[in-house]
């Protein structure tokens, strides 16, 4: 036995300079089990018993190449200095390379090479969490290092419920095996029958269409039996199974608006969301939870219903609203309902008219009677948090019309996808291919190559056409960039927008077309056709591929400017998933793929754009009240879970000037405290003037009643029963929300008596901090305190000692709660215009530095001079609101509290702290009329549980 055979038998690796190390192990050195494992795992795989035998690249990393010393000698035996130095240089470089490779080979694991947004802790013990190309290596490394791994199939159930489910699964598996065995035996027994033998006659009937009831809530789609138990109290989105592996979903027992909604992706995505939504890439969401209702009937009746919902502007029903009534534009805004003598907002809605046929649209509109009798259809898309309230209001208003109009619930008939970002148009162009080449809207949509911002389209533009099944051209190909010629054509298209002539009714409104589009060919059929096709060529459309009706419309944020717009795609509910897969895997021209977004990302983008997010920032609506009460309960539960030594004690908070304790509830946007409302529902019932709207208001206290077809009496009883858990809802629900146009009209009005806002009214605002500061939810918003009135001539002037007391002096024992007289001026000095003088004053009062090259006597003199000058030491910093005061102004008093922050953080788009909140309309109006727009919009924001406030400026949203 030679040396190599001895090494192989002993399990030791061969020598570094041996050539046998790169050869595969011989058949004699391994058993049959190892050979089978090598055949299954591939070349680089090794059996578990071959751990000492490292792979080839590990051995190459440890191999240090060198050169014999004889190579540096000449033929006569003399040393060639140049060759000797070159050889040593090569050896040093080989040593450094070997050290570097060896370190990387030993220390680098597979889960350390995954993308940076992937969670490495999960990938370290689960091979399925790493990319496919690295899974075999990950399994091998875990096997070599004895990493504890758990397989779901071998995991023992820990609970009784899990054990019962496992037993039922085994029982069902045995039953299925018996069924397959009987079917196989039956097939074998029938092999001798001829083809002409008479068989059973089967009659194929049309699949039943889903039932849509008029003026009644619709039922969720029929659920598969295997998923039925998981959707008892909620409904899955069409893309739920895809989201469940890639996003954090709502808790199974706590659905949101009776839907299982993705909250945020599992990947780290806060900064990537900011970049993809505004700089490069695109963000997309499955918004099929957004509720849709169809109103159909006479044009006059629909007009009266929409006017009753708050769409009473003359611009909508005049010549300016002609395009909206024709169906080529959408309307987006807040809808409201009458509540006593005032109106109360319901929530945001998007309203779209279905165009009339060409022969009817060409009829003259000079006659006043005929247009009112034309049968029209309207699609109303709203948020699920306020859908029940809006639907019941629609049904009530529809029954008042003559002839009566009807309302249909299309929540589970129409799904939607939203996209935003520079690559959103490019993604839709690659996925949505028009089915008919002669459709005008499809042609215009295909010509939008090169659009990087949906806001560049005409405001609220609508396109309705039919598209092919995206699976026929999967995976989607990258769209070619626009040339100079196409740029000119694109500019002409955006300017003229030639879609308003010969408009046809949108197929998405047709129930039969939606049903045919929902019966798409199965994926197996698509795979067979793709396998029979030439590689690289798209599958041809056949009669078995129905057209998919879609409606796409572009919207722009209310703030305007250069902010990115949003594409909204409406399609049949069952067609959302095929479109979704193509969007996910589209290769953007800027690199990468579209990024997934959840509910948190929607709120983040709205926050960075400076707009309010529904329902969290709309406390003047019933949906906003329900959201606020749920957030209060979550904050209270999180506060209770913290140890007593690590949670904020609200009663011991020091606000300075002898003030102790937090103002109101520190875990809530306590508008009850601001307006003096009682949190006891029995003592805070609305006034008699609002009694007309109390019944409809209490119907929506329970958001889980959305999908339940119940009467008004049952709903009232259910809401009364749930009122014990939401005892603060009635008092908070009396708060009203004003619109920006209404508040601006009050500012410009000169009549002080008639220009007063309604009682308990608030306005949503966007706050930008002037210098420093970051606000959190529930932060307090103060206005700047007013200056004290100047003393009259008859008043005895104060003594010189009292007049010269600065704001930083300690407060006397008998003046607890008194604030400095010049507190407003102290806050005004924090404006950026006064920063230069304050910095100069700080520099002038700073202690002089001792020069380094000074003799000992001079150093002593300078040190004595600095001690006698009385300059304060830079450390420790005095407390800003302590007993001895400080250089930061105190927060204003409780009488200057005007509102609360609903969302706040550091804005990546602004580069500073911003916040979204709500303030009292009455106090804001008084401040603006007293101090003007420049100083009246300044405010102080203080986080709940903190003592320091920061100067900001608010703007009405």
TrEMBL record:
It is found in: Nucleus. InterPro entries: Pop1 (IPR039182), POP1_C (IPR055079), Pop1_N (IPR009723), POPLD_dom (IPR012590). Residues 1-77, 137-203, 331-370, 678-730, 783-809, 832-854 are annotated as: Disordered. Residues 164-176, 184-198 have a biased composition (Basic and acidic residues). Residues 153-163 have a biased composition (Basic residues). Residues 84-297 form the Pop1 N-terminal domain. Residues 30-42, 678-691, 792-801, 832-847 have a biased composition (Low complexity). Pfam families: POP1_C, POP1_N, POPLD. Coiled coil: none annotated. Transmembrane segments: none annotated. It comes from the Eukaryota. The keyword tRNA processing applies. Residues 331-341, 353-369 have a biased composition (Polar residues). This is Ribonucleases P/MRP protein subunit POP1-domain-containing protein. It comes from Sordaria brevicollis.
């Amino acid at each position: 036995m030679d040396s190599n055979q001895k090494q192989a038998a002993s399990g030791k690796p061969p020598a570094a300079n041996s050539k046998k190390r790169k050869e595969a192990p011989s058949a004699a050195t391994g058993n049959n089990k190892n050979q089978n494992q090598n055949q299954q795992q591939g070349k680089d795989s090794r059996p578990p018993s071959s751990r000492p035998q490292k792979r080839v690249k590990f051995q190459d990393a440890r191999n240090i190449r060198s050169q014999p010393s004889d190579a540096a000698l000449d033929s006569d035996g003399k040393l060639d200095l140049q060759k000797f130095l070159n050889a040593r240089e090569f050896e040093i470089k080989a040593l450094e390379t070997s050290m570097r490779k060896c370190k990387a080979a030993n220390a680098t694991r597979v889960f350390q090479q995954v993308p940076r947004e992937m969670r490495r802790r999960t990938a370290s013990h689960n091979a399925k969490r790493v990319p496919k190309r690295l899974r075999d290596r990950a399994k091998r490394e875990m096997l070599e290092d004895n990493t504890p791994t758990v397989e779901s199939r071998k995991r023992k159930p820990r609970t009784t419920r899990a054990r019962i489910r496992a037993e039922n699964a085994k029982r069902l598996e045995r039953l299925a095996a018996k069924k397959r065995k009987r079917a196989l035996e039956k097939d074998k027994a029938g092999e001798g029958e001829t083809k002409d033998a008479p068989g059973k006659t089967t009659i194929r009937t049309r699949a039943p269409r889903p039932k849509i009831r008029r003026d009644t809530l619709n039922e969720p789609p029929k659920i598969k039996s295997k998923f039925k138990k998981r959707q008892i109290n909620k409904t899955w989105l069409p893309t739920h199974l895809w989201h469940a592996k890639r996003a954090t979903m709502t808790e199974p027992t706590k659905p949101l608006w009776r839907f299982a909604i993705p909250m945020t992706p599992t990947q780290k995505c806060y900064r990537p969301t900011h970049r993809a939504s505004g700089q490069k890439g695109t963000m997309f969401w499955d918004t099929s939870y957004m509720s849709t209702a169809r109103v159909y009937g006479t044009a006059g009746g629909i007009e009266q219903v929409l006017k009753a919902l708050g769409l009473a502007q003359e611009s909508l029903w005049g010549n300016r609203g002609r395009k909206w009534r024709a169906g080529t534009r959408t309307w987006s805004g807040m809808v409201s309902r009458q509540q006593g003598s005032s109106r109360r907002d319901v929530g945001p809605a998007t309203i779209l008219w279905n165009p009339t046929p060409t022969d009817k649209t060409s009829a003259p509109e000079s006659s006043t009677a005929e247009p009112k009798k034309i049968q029209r259809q309207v699609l109303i898309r709203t948020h699920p948090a306020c859908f029940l309230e809006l639907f019941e209001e629609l049904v009530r208003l529809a029954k008042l019309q003559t002839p009566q109009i009807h309302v249909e619930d299309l929540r589970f008939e129409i799904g939607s996808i939203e996209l935003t970002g520079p690559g959103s148009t490019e993604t839709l162009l690659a996925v949505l291919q028009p089915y008919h080449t002669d459709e005008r809207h499809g042609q215009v949509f295909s010509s939008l190559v090169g659009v990087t911002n949906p806001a560049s389209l005409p405001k609220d533009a609508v396109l309705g056409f039919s598209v092919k099944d995206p699976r026929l051209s999967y995976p989607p190909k990258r769209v070619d960039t626009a040339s100079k010629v196409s740029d000119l054509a694109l500019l002409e298209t955006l300017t003229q927008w030639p879609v308003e002539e010969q408009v046809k009714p949108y197929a998405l409104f047709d129930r039969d077309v939606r049903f045919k589009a929902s019966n798409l060919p199965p994926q197996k059929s698509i795979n067979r056709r793709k396998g029979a096709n030439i590689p690289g060529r798209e599958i041809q459309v056949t009669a078995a591929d129905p057209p998919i009706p879609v409606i796409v419309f572009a919207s722009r944020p209310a703030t305007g400017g250069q902010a990115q717009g949003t594409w909204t795609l409406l399609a049949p509910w069952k067609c959302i998933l095929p479109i979704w897969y193509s969007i996910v895997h589209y290769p953007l021209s800027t690199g990468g793929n579209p990024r997934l977004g959840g509910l948190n990302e929607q709120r983040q983008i709205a926050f960075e754009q400076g707009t309010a997010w529904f329902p969290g920032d709309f406390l003047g609506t019933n949906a906003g009240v329900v959201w606020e009460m749920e957030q209060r309960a979550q904050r209270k539960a999180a506060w209770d879970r913290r140890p007593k030594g690590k949670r904020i004690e609200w009663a011991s908070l020091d606000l300075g000037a002898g003030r102790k304790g937090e103002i109101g509830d520190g875990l809530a946007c306590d508008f009850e405290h601001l307006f003096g409302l009682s949190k006891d529902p029995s003592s805070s019932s609305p006034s008699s003037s609002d009694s007309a709207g109390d019944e409809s208001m209490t119907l929506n206290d329970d958001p889980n009643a959305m999908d339940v077809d119940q009467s008004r009496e049952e709903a009232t009883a259910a809401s009364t029963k749930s009122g014990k858990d939401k005892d603060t809802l009635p008092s908070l629900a009396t708060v009203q929300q004003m619109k920006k146009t209404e508040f601006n009209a009050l500012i410009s009005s000169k009549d002080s008596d008639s220009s007063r806002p309604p009682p308990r009214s608030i306005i949503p605002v966007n706050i930008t901090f002037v210098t420093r500061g970051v606000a959190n939810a529930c932060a307090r918003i103060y206005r700047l305190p007013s200056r004290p009135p100047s003393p009259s001539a008859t008043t005895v002037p104060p003594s010189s000692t009292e007049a010269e007391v600065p704001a930083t002096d300690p407060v006397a024992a008998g003046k607890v709660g008194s604030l400095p007289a010049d507190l407003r001026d102290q806050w005004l000095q924090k404006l950026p215009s006064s920063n230069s003088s304050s910095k100069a004053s700080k520099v002038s009062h700073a202690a002089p530095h001792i020069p380094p090259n000074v003799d000992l006597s001079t150093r002593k003199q300078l040190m004595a001079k600095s001690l006698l000058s009385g300059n304060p030491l830079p450390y420790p910093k005095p407390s800003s609101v302590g007993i001895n005061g400080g250089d930061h102004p105190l927060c204003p008093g409780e009488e200057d509290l005007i509102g609360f922050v609903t969302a706040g953080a550091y804005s990546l788009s602004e580069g500073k702290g911003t916040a979204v909140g709500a303030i009292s309309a009455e106090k804001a109006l008084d401040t603006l009329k007293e101090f003007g727009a420049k100083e009246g919009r300044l405010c102080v924001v203080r986080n709940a549980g903190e003592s320091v406030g920061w100067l900001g400026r608010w703007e009405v949203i």
